[in-house]
Amino acid sequence: MDQRNLVSQGQRKRSLFSARKVALMASVVTGLAMYGFSASPERIDVFGSAAHAQAANAASGVTQQPLGFADVVERVKPSVISVKVTMKDKAADASNKDDADESGSPMERFFRQFGGPNGEFQNPGRNGRHGMKGQGSGFFISSDGFAVTNNHVVEGADKVEVTTDGGKTYTAKVVGTDARTDLALIKVEGGSDFSFAKLSAGKARIGDWVIAVGNPFGLGGTVTAGIVSASGRDIGSGPYDDFIQIDAPVNKGNSGGPTFNMQGEVVGVNTAIYSPSGGSVGIAFSIPAMTVKNVVAQLKDKGSVTRGWIGVHVQPVTQDIADSMGLKQAQGALVADPQKDGPAAKAGIEAGDVITAANGQSVKDARELARIIGGFAPGNAVKLDVLRKGQSKVVSLTLGQLPNDQQAKANTEGDAKRSLDGIDVPHLGLKLAPSKADGASKEGVVIAKVEPKSAAAERGLKKGDVILEVAGKSVVKPGDVGDALEAARTDKKSSVLMRLRSGDASRYVALPLANG
User: Fold this and answer.
1) pTM
2) 8 A C-beta contact, residue 515 and residue 429
3) DSSP characters over 354-423
4) Given its phi and psi angles, is residue 439 left (phi above 0), alpha (psi -120 to 50 degrees) or beta?
5) How many other CB atoms are found less than 10 A from the CB of residue 190?
């Protein structure tokens, strides 16, 4: 072997040794980072203390999470309470539904799986005691005994007791409740120096660490940790759904308990879990702190919540509807019907308008419009950005107060007396009643029959619905519908927008024309 070969081999060995040293050092740094240490770009202090690492991180602007949750928990745990209620038999019977019951909305089933042991409410009456008992959690928001919990924990309560983290039990009264957000404010009697939690002023971000504290199964205070999985969740509980989704194991009995961030502030109130088995599967929902602040302030002031109201029936803008209306994006709230004498109707809002913003806040869909308007007090002035037949305009109005019975009920069954001797629209699967048929509407054209598995049936049209408009034109007889469809085909449109009335509610539906 010549000298050059020996030199070459020596260089390779030194290079290999250097590479191994670099790899070893990298693995040490990575391993330490897993345990809460991190290196600043200017300095790598592998063997330094945690304090040195924290100082380096502070200098470089790197945020470091704590090695554990004990310090935060020790600080916030005294503010969390157990809430026990006794209710009258009648109220309890209405709430004590079997978890296996499939009736009601998905949220009703969530709530039935989110109370105390063996269902939301136990029945102590089987042991000879009067009334029903339920259990949840809550937390103090002031030193004088005001506390937050869920509406479904105290709804119908005849007596409310709270137990503090220190084991003391107090009587409480219900100050006010809000079923639409599932929040309740209670006031503990007999104390004036309670530990209390602070509601966060900011929004929880996806990926943030959170800690859920509560009293599941009556075991005393328990703590679980996880992260924020999602925000703005709509789970079908009501028009103001805006839940934070967390993966901290939140179990039965945690209803009304707080979710804390790493600064010890409440970012949400635990309300529901998705649970096929009845236990935690890592999907829990919390009411955001900002919503809690707004609702609790009104409950404390007057015992109830009043919300702004513009008086419109709205629906989401689907992609089919956007295409039919020539919109660039499938977003906004489509006005199906301005309610008579409501603020919107008085301000000039029309059916077919698409509301895209309210007071400068972008409106993604119909539910977001409800949340934005509901966040304003009645009497406030609001400016709505509106798209009308492709043109933008701004409409100003003064909000009214949301009526308790604002939800209109649609008729789900057609009138059997209406004649079937109408005009067919075969490619849509419709038969339309003539305007003079028995039971026909004075306004619009009655749907006398809908073929199963047709385009109309797939989009929810049913016997008894009344077609009010087709492609923006009012119709009063079946021939008008045919003419409007033919005009849309001539314009080479792939779908046509119909405005329908079902019972007292109106809505828009986009139907395809491609096969016509």
Assistant:
1) 0.64
2) no
3) EEEEETTEE--SHHHHHHHHHTSPTT-EEEEEEEETTEEEEEEEE-EEPPTT--PPPP-S--TTS-S-SE
4) left
5) 10
Size of the chain, expressed as the number of residues it contains: 516
Beta bridge partners of 429: none
Q: Give the C-alpha separation, 237 to 107, whole Å.
A: 5
Q: What is the predicted pLDDT for the residue at 315?
A: 86
Are the C-beta atoms of 305 and 299 separated by less than 8 Å? yes
- The helix or strand, by DSSP H or E, that contains position 479, with its residue range, turns out to be helix 478-490
Contact predicate 308/406, CB 8 Å: no
Q: Which two tokens stand for residue 432?
A: 């339309």
For the residues of 70-123, what is the DSSP string, one character each?
HHHHHHHGGGEEEEEEEE-HHHHHHH---TT---S-HHHHHHHTSSSTTSSEE-
Domains belonging to the chain, first-starting first, are: 3-60 (no CATH), 68-305 (2.40.10.120), 308-401 (2.30.42.10), 423-512 (2.30.42.10)
Euclidean distance between CA atoms 75 and 71, whole angstroms = 6
| pLDDT tens digits, 330-348 | 899 999 888 888 999 999 9
Nearest one of 120, 107, 410 to 241, comparing CA atoms:
107
Decide the pairing of beta strands 333-338 and 146-149: unpaired
Read off the pLDDT of residues 161-186 as tens digits, 9 standing for 90 and up: 999 988 899 999 999 999 888 999 99
SS3 labels along 297-351: HHHHHHCCCCCEECCEEEEECCHHHHHHHCCCCCCCEEEEEECCCCHHHHHCCCC
Which pLDDT score is estimated for 208?
A: 93
Question: Whole-angstrom Cα distance, residue 316 to residue 330?
Answer: 8
Residue 137 catalytic?
Answer: no
Question: Which residues of the chain fall below pLDDT 50?
Answer: 1-10, 12-13, 15-17, 19-51, 53, 90-130, 405-421, 437-440, 515-516
Nearest Cα to Cα of residue 150 among 304, 12, 292: 292
Active site residue 255: yes
Determine which one of 229, 255, 324, 435 is catalytic: 255
**Strands 198-199 vs 265-273: parallel, antiparallel or unpaired:** parallel
**Catalytic option among 38, 79, 82, 182:** 182
Structure-token match 């304090």, residue found: 51
**What count of other Cβ atoms lies within 10 Å of the Cβ of residue 139?**
27
Spatial neighbors of 202 by CB under 8 A, at least 6 apart, are: none
Catalytic residue among 152, 237, 247, 435: 152
Distance in angstroms (rounded) separating the CA atoms of residues 483 and 470: 9
